[in-house]
Design a protein that fits this description.
about 270 residues, 16-stranded mixed β-sheet
């Protein structure tokens, strides 16, 4: 169930970086989303879902820090309640070549997953290595062309601004021991909204499909995605109208509160 955290890694807004290394341009923020079941008639896994997701992202003078907690109670058709609680935190370097990450998931009071480690991109071709400390000491090679979450968002925002509709890349997100995916992105045309708490009124519809690298087709057709997410993205990196599709069920995330956080003082 660690793919519930894919949304975390998408919400790292990508600032431009000044010559001094200070992130500029996009917004540090805390966002609270109400979660509910989408397409109630689409399947019989859950009868209802109620929960919330809290995302905090802050630019620092040497990179970006983020945290997220996603929790919900799902009711089965038989009337049984199932509880999910997933917590993720990370730091990523301003050069987009290093990430530290921690993930914990719980079923009620019981911890069921724990991942902690660090990854670096060391090769000129974008290859690297991820070294885990939990749940075991293990190193995993990262293939050429790998990007981390902030670079993913930089590419999405850049593509949206330039009007490029499609993009594909390999993403490492630290969400498990098999945490590198092939991601296909489709970006629609800009939409103007009359008002926005962030102060940014231009948004783009974005759809992302995550594929298992082992199932990649050399011709570029990866088959059925493991996970899909769609949302409206503004130029500050804030997400709206989120939809998380896990195949057996889908969740909708509605932004209920947005708090803008101060930029770092890097003088």
């Amino acid at each position: 169930m660690h793919r519930l955290l894919a949304i975390t890694l998408l919400t790292l807004p990508l600032p431009a970086v000044s010559a001094a290394g200070q992130p500029t341009g996009l917004l540090s923020h805390r966002a609270i989303y109400a979660l509910r079941l989408a397409d109630k008639d689409a399947g019989d896994l859950f009868a209802a879902v109620e929960g919330a997701m809290v995302i905090e992202w802050k630019a620092t003078c040497d990179g970006w820090v983020s945290s997220q907690r996603m929790g919900f109670v799902a009711e089965t058709p038989e009337g049984e309640d199932i509880t999910f609680d997933v917590r993720f935190s990370s730091w990523e370097s301003a050069e987009n070549d290093r990430i530290r990450f921690t993930l914990r998931s719980f079923d009620g009071p019981h911890q069921v997953e724990s991942y902690r480690g660090e990854a670096r991109l060391e090769g000129p071709d974008g290859s690297g290595v991820a070294r885990y400390r939990e749940p075991e000491e293990v190193s995993i090679e990262l293939p050429p062309g790998t990007v981390f979450p902030t670079e993913q968002m930089r590419r999405l925002v850049e593509a949206a601004r330039e009007g490029r509709m499609m993009s594909q890349y390999r993403l490492f997100d630290g969400s498990g021991l098999v945490a590198t995916s092939s991601v296909a992105a489709v970006i629609g045309g800009p939409v103007e909204v009359p008002e926005a708490v962030s102060g940014l009124t231009r948004r783009w519809p974005v759809s992302l499909a995550y594929y298992d690298l082992g199932g990649e087709d050399p011709a570029g057709e990866a088959g059925i995605p493991e996970f899909e997410i769609s949302f409206m993205l503004d130029e500050g990196g804030v997400l709206y109208d989120v939809r998380l599709d896990y195949g057996d069920f889908a969740l909708e995330g509605e932004l209920e509160k947005l708090e803008l956080l101060p930029a770092p003082d890097c003088r």
